[in-house]
Amino acid sequence: MAHRWKNTLTDNDVTPERVFLNRRQIIGAAAAGLALSGLGGRAQAETLEPTGWDDITSYNNYYEFGTGKGDPATNAHKLTVEPWNVRIDGLVDRPGDYAFEDILNKMTIEERLYRLRCVEAWSMVVPWNGFELADLLAMVVVQGGAKYVAFETALRPDEMPGVHRPVIEWPYVEGLRLDEAMHPLTIMATGIYGRDIPNQNGAPLRLVVPWKYGFKSIKSVVRITLTDTMPPTTWNKSNAREYGFYSNVNPQVDHPRWSQASERVVGTGLFARRQPTLMFNGYGEDVAGLYAGMDLAKHF
Ligand code: MTE
User: Fold this and answer.
1) Whole-angstrom distance between the N-terminal and C-terminal Cα of the chain?
2) What pLDDT, in 10s, does the model give residues 54-97?
3) Could you tell me the distance, in angstroms and rounded to a whole number, from the CA of residue 62 to the centre of ligand 1?
4) Which CATH number fits domain 11-291: 1.10.10.10, 3.40.1400.10, 3.40.50.720, 3.90.420.10?
């Protein structure tokens, strides 16, 4: 089935899997390399060369498993992802606890591949598998009064060592405006590079919104609530001055502590190529209409 958005990306654009899985080591090596000269920097990078899938996913942001970049890799195996239920409630005609397997079966679609640009401080193109959030919302029948969608991550103190410390307010929560949630570029990802998502990356089901910064991608979702009021989001609650509700990729609006005008490209070597960050991460043609007439410096 064709995508309902313009896709110009091909396999050639995809960030190599090895680079994706090890991007934070590579990023770390690049940062360390800046302090070293020539050979020293290269030698440093070589010692950090990845060796395979087991080695992967050693650097993630998933605070439920600890705030250290290596903590999720060490601890995320404790997360039981089978069975998995997602509660869908609020302003819907068919609220309920849906088994993950049933959700997958009801999405009457063959597995779709989404090659999407993603940007944190670095940009990359990631091949996700999954389904459109809009299809899931259609299944539960959204009521007329709904304006927003709230998301919640599992909170399991027995399995998640990080939640014993109040580094953020638990559970991790996120939100989208309903029209953003219904956009065909907004997906619930279940796979990555043709495999199931590893626990540390948000198994079995995580949000991906490619025109927004990476922290909007809430992992291991257990609850989706349709509401008429703007829901709280974890990073906005912890630092409202730095993180707004929308968090759209926007080169014109700097984060209070750094410029967001350009980005480094993952996998382009120790002294990585910088490229100008594109409005809405390059998806402006598809999504700019959602924000027509809004002051995006105010609604960041
Ligand atoms: N979701 C939960 N539940 N907990 C988290 O700590 N971190 C966010 C986001 N989703 C986070 C989360 C942040 S800050 C980022 S950058 C991305 O996940 C990182 O996803 P990745 O590890 O797959 O790259």
Assistant:
1) 34
2) 333 566 889 999 998 889 989 999 999 999 999 999 999 999 99
3) 5
4) 3.90.420.10
Q: Which atom of ligand 1 is nearest to the CA of 60?
A: 22
Tokens coding 281: 């991460």
- Does ligand 1 lie within 6 Å of residue 201's CB atom? yes
For the CA of 201, the nearest atom of ligand 1 = 23
Say if residues 220 and 206 touch (Cβ distance below 8 Å).
yes
Minimal-distance CA residue to ligand 1 atom 13: 215
Distance 201 CA to ligand 1 centre (A): 7
- What residue's CA is closest to ligand 1, atom 17? 215
Round to whole Å and give the CA distance between 252 and 125. 22
Q: Judge contact between 279 and 252, C-beta under 8 A.
A: yes
Quickly tell me which residue has 């700019």 as its tokens: 288
- Distance CA(176)–CA(181), nearest Å, equals 6
CB 268 within 8 A of CB 45: no
Cα–Cα dist 300/288, whole Å? 14
What residue ranges do the domains of the chain occupy?
11-291
Cα separation of 220 and 155, whole Å? Answer: 10
C-alpha of residue 40 to centroid of ligand 1, in Å? 32
pLDDT digits (tens, 9 = 90+) for 134-189: 999 999 999 999 999 999 999 999 999 999 999 999 999 999 999 999 999 999 99
Is 69 near ligand 1, meaning CB less than 6 Å away? no
Are the CB atoms for 119 and 113 separated by under 8 Å?
no
Whether ligand 1 lies within 6 angstroms of the CB of 218 is answered as yes
Q: What is the pTM of this model?
A: 0.87
